[in-house]
Fold this protein.
Amino acid sequence: MSHDASFERTQAGGQFAAALALAHIVEIKLPAAEWMIPESGRLCGHLKRVVDLDARIAMRQYATFLGGRLRASQGRNSHTEWVHLSVDATYRGVPVTVWTHVDVRPVAEVRS
């Protein structure tokens, strides 16, 4: 199969370009992530089961390598507080999102 610019304008071509970008990212040996390439050709990485400090370090590594901005948002429910970290960037012409969601701490139970 040949690889040319006209191929990259198709859905399959976008996914192919994302697969090539992923091969380069994996080769760099960044922190392990679970990867997905949807029909859109966007490369999506998810860091699973990480603790807060490790997650922040890993996401900074991705932000530095990809040249993206690390974004953080916090949330809370009655049982826990969490931080959602994400990086959006373009790598080798492919849109990339890497994200993780970590529990920061359990919320103390209120006793009456």
About this structure: The chain has one domain: 7-106.
